[in-house]
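Entry 14. Structure prediction run on the chain below.
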Amino acid sequence: MYLPPAFKQHDIQAQAELIRHYPLGLLIAHGADGIEANLIPFLADVDAAGQLTLRAHLSRDNAQWKTLAEHRQCMVVFQGVEGYVSPSWYPSKKQSGGKAVPTWNYACVQVSGEAKIIDNPDWLLRLFNQLTTLHESNQREPWSVSDAPADFIADRLKGVIGIELVTTKVEGKWKLSQNRTEEDVSGVIDGLRQLGDSQSALAEAMIQANSGDK
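Output returned:
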C-alpha cells in the first residue's frame, strides 16, 4: 500500500476496531487461474501480544477456498469511512490563487497472511453464533442460531467451510487531511457536515485523526 507517514495508522486496536465496524472484507488470493476476490464478512480478534486473527466462512461452492488450501498467502482489504473532498472547502484555495485540487478522504486496513482451511462443524457453529450475536445485537428482536431447527443449521454447516487468517502484515491508512492546515481541515469538516448524515461519520473521523490525541 502507498502509505505516506502522515496517514499511517500504527495502532492495532484501532485497525481491529475499523474491521469490526466494517467487517465485509475483500478477500484476495492468487491461484492457478489468476487473481480471485470475494467479499466476505470477517470476525477480528487481537490477543494480548497484539496478534490479529481473522475468521470467516466460505460457501463450499466458492472455489476460492480450494485456492487458499493450495496457495495459502492472501490479503483482505477493509474499507472504512470515505468520501470526496472538494477544493472549494479549503480556505487556502483563495489565498493560493486557486492552487487546489479535489481529493478523497478515507480509512482502510489491509491484512496479509496465510489462510488455514477449517472443515470442522463445531468450529463453524461457534463462528455462526459469534457472527450472529455481533450483527444481531442492534436488532429490536435479535435472531439467534438456536431460533432455527437444529437439523436445518446442521445442513447449512455442511455447505460452508471455515478460514482462519493469522496475519503477518497489517497496514492501516487513515487519509483524513492530516497533511492540511488546521483551517483547511476545519473547512473540509464543515463541508462534509453540510452534506448531512451521509458524511457525518467521515467528519467525525477527521476530527479524531486531527486532534491532539492522534
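Helices lie at 12-21, 64-70, 92-95, 121-136, 150-158, 182-194, 200-209.
Filed with the rest of this week's runs.
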